[in-house]
Amino acid sequence: MSIETSRVHKTAYDAETHARLTVDSDAIVARYPQARSALLPMLHLVQSEDGYVSPRGIAFCAAHLGLSTAEVSAVATFYTQYKRHPNGTYTVGVCTNTLCAIMGGDAIWEDLSDHLGIGHDETTDDGVITLERVECNAACDYAPVVMVNWEFFDNQTPDSARQIADDLTAGKPVVPTRGAASVCSFKEMSRVLAGFGDGRADEGVGAGVPTLRGVELARAEGWTAAEFPDATGSAGAGATTPTVGGEQSSAQRPATTPADVSPAAELKKQSTDDAKES
Ligand code: FES
Fold first, then answer.
1. Is the CB of 136 under 6 A from ligand 1?
2. What ligand 1 atom has the least distance to the C-alpha of 142?
3. List of domains in the chain
């Protein structure tokens, strides 16, 4: 695979771009009590400019937030949504997590990878498509799922996924099966992820028929979730719903220590681990 020289960016932003990014970054920083908390959306912001987290983007974030470039790089390399080389106009993500995989995701991946001639996190020579294996997108009810710049394409097959890729390559519009009516570019999507909405968040249906099936069945049958226990540990009258940061909140739960684990439970865990390794 080759990356066009023109797509590799220089080492600093010009004055106009720097000024524009500074205004946007100030708006992001203003959302947080501490400036460094703005780093994640700012990395999306520089991706919206360069199509990846470029060296100059890292330098910009570091200077704006009073961090070292090493600190910014450490964060950027941790998350797969941050790209370390120029991304295609469209990220085509094939879910190959367990449910999608067994429903056909692995077959879609193999076919698409062969068809495009690229592997994971690689980009077609024309710069249109970056192909990725992606983890579960909480769309298992529509497995196997393909994402294009994080828009849903549900219930896919190798043929339908190949058609999406061919349309993208040909510059034809593709239509997600849920949510937004169209797919924006990687740079446009990155700007939305930086927190600058494009006004399209509520387009289309999010939760469809399979998604709502469980809750509709529960309503029809009169099923309800168990109540939370009250302060004495018993459910029922007096039971309270935990509030964020409250007693039943996981945020307030002390970390598990060896003292919390009974010898019997520890023995069972050990035998389970041994069985896995044998
Ligand atoms: S396993 Fe693919 S969306 Fe959940």
1. yes
2. 3
3. 5-76 (no CATH), 90-193 (3.40.30.10)
For the Cβ of 147 lying below 6 angstroms from any atom of ligand 1, the answer is no
Q: What is the pTM of this model?
A: 0.77
pLDDT digits (tens, 9 = 90+) for 162-185: 999 999 999 999 999 998 999 999
Structure tokens of 183?
A: 């797919």
CA atoms within 13 A on the CB side of 13: 19
Please indicate whether residue 97, judged by its CB atom, sits closer than 6 Å to ligand 1: yes
139 in ligand 1 pocket by Cβ < 6 Å? yes
Closest ligand 1 atom, residue 95 Cα: 2
Distance CA 153, CA 142 (A): 9
Question: Of 80, 206, 210, which Cα lies nearest the Cα of 143?
Answer: 210
- pLDDT the model gives residue 254: 55
Q: Is 188:213 a contact under the CB 8 Å cutoff?
A: no
Give the phi and the psi of residue 259 in degrees, each rounded to 5: -70, -20
Which single residue is written with the structure tokens 């790209």? Answer: 83
